[in-house]
């Protein structure tokens, strides 16, 4: 399901969340993690809902399984392409990087500048500053070939 490098990244993420290092993610681990991220008023109900997804104690194996289920839930490539086409009235296959960045940072689930830069690091952008969104959709749904 995952490549070895991905598993290592998931181990690191799990270790960051497992604050007390007991090998199980608990409500207090989640609360502490949120606190470190600056979100202090997380409701116990929210945390309980997160933990229920594991259907029992969330050890590393369960954590990996949950991520696998979430990643398999990624929108199909056609849906992502259709969304990009809304920003490409000329059907050129490209969207302008600067205009797209502005939209990402000001509309709906606003991206942070760091999140935009992370996405642009993967995005195929030509010298004119246009994103090849068909290639980007492929990367989103299949992974970046450069990672291999």
Q: Would you kindly provide a written description of the structure presented here, covering whatever features stand out?
A:
The mean pLDDT is 86. With 148 residues, the chain is mostly helical. It has 2 domains: 4-71, Recoverin, domain 1; 77-142, Recoverin, domain 1, CATH 1.10.238. Helix content is 57%, strand content 4%. It has a two-stranded antiparallel sheet with strand order 1-2.
Write a short abstract of this structure.
The protein is mainly alpha-helical and 148 residues long. The chain has eight helices and two strands. The mean pLDDT is 86.
Q: In CATH terms, what is the architecture of the largest domain? A: Orthogonal Bundle
What is the CATH topology descriptor of the largest domain? Recoverin, domain 1
Mean pLDDT: 86
Output the CATH class name of the largest domain. Mainly Alpha
The CATH H-level superfamily of the largest domain is EF-hand
Sequence of strands across the biggest β-sheet:
1-2
Q: Would you list the SSEs in sequence order as H and E?
A: HHHHHEHHEH
Q: SS-based structural class?
A: mainly alpha
State which percent range the strand residues make up.
under 5%
Q: Could you give the count of β-strands? A: 2
Q: What best-fitting shape do the alpha-carbon axes yield? A: elongated
Largest sheet: 2 strands, antiparallel
- Give the helix level as a range of percent: 55-70%
The value of Rg in angstroms is: 18 Å
Question: What's the total helix number?
Answer: 8
Q: Give the termini distance in whole angstroms.
A: 15 Å
What number of domains? Answer: 2
Unreliable spans are none
């Amino acid at each position: 399901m995952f490549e070895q490098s991905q598993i290592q990244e998931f181990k690191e993420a799990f270790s960051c969340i497992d604050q007390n290092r007991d090998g199980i993610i608990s409500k207090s681990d989640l609360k502490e993690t949120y606190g470190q991220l600056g979100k202090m008023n997380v409701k116990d109900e929210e945390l309980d809902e997160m933990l229920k997804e594991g259907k029992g104690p969330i050890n590393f194996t369960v954590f990996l399984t949950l991520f696998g289920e979430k990643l398999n839930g990624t929108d199909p490539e056609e849906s992502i392409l259709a969304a990009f086409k809304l920003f490409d009235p000329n059907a050129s296959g490209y969207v302008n990087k600067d205009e797209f960045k502005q939209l990402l940072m000001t509309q709906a689930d606003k991206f942070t500048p760091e999140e935009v830069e992370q996405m642009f690091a993967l995005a195929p952008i030509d010298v004119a500053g246009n994103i090849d969104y068909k290639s980007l959709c492929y990367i989103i749904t299949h992974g970046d070939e450069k990672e291999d």
